[in-house]
Amino acid sequence: xxxxxxxxxxxxxxxxxxxxxxxxxFGIVLGATITDLLRTFNHHPYRLEDHVHxxxxxxxxxxxxxxxxxxxxxxxxxxxxxxxxxxxxxxxxLAVVYFITPGENFVYAGSAAAGGADLTPTFCIHxxxxxxxxxxxFFETGLHLVTPSTRHVPPECIDPKIKNRxxxxxxxxxxxxxxxxxxxxxxxxxxxxxxxxTSGSNFLLVKKGIVYSxxxxxxxxxxxxxxxxxxCSKLGISFVERDLQTHDAxxxxxxxxxxxxxxxxxxxxxxxxxxxxxxxxxxxxxxxxLRAWSDEAGVDIRAQILGPQGxxxxxxx
Length: 317
Known about the structure:
Layout: E1 6-9, E2 12-15, H1 26-29, E3 34-41, E4 44-45, H2 48-62, H3 70-84, E5 94-101, E6 122-129, H4 132-140, E7 143-146, H5 168-180, E8 185-189, E9 195-198, E10 202-207, E11 210-213, H6 223-235, E12 239-241, H7 246-250, E13 254-259, E14 263-270, E15 273-274, H8 284-297, H9 301-306
Parallel strand pairs: 7-8, 7-14, 11-12
Antiparallel strand pairs: 1-2, 1-6, 3-4, 3-5, 5-6, 8-9, 10-11, 10-13, 13-14, 14-15
Helix pairs in contact: 6-8
């Protein structure tokens, strides 16, 4: 497998060019797929146990039993990263993806038609180089969040704490947000008008020095969000979880999103209204947290995203 990435699929380590799944897989037929994603820092998996444990909790809830134990998944992840990280190039990092489906559905008529067949789950671990160039604009100009008419799926239907790929609503929300601003990111509301999350990140805001998060009932409990909670505790910053509305976001002193690929990015506009002073370096709380996160990771996160041609980093300032 020298020269191309390795992929773990159905119990075997394969070259990426040989890895494929059936068109009859439940992940394709029903969108029944549990997933998770972690990243590396300095070619080492970051928060590996957090991501793997969340993945296995999601599998348990979805009634899809992984064919190997969590400990073995972590071992395979380390092996995969060791092989694939050098292929990411100088200064590159990896995203490592887990996904699992119930397996193949040969009758193509939903799970009921399978008649209780003994399915073999499709379990895959693969990676790709983190495309920092795609995230650069988030740190150069900040994010514009738009609240679309498409609403978040209620937890009574699919609990958002289960990380899954049944995400057509996110696609629809993104297309709607792009009608307002081609580079905007959707910030979905629930059926009662409370803020939930974006299509790929948790949303946090700052008011009078306090970091606020939407209530846990309506959001994925992101690992990056967990890091921020821990950093807030270390830095003596209050972190509060409660229902938030669009008014809170549009009148916040600061706002930012948290996500695995680029950790934290500042929000500079919500529904066209400037957030804080609108600067792409973010507000003071955001900058404190980003510096602390960079110190923990051993990498200047903002400088890594911006690359050698980017502006001077505030993370190490």
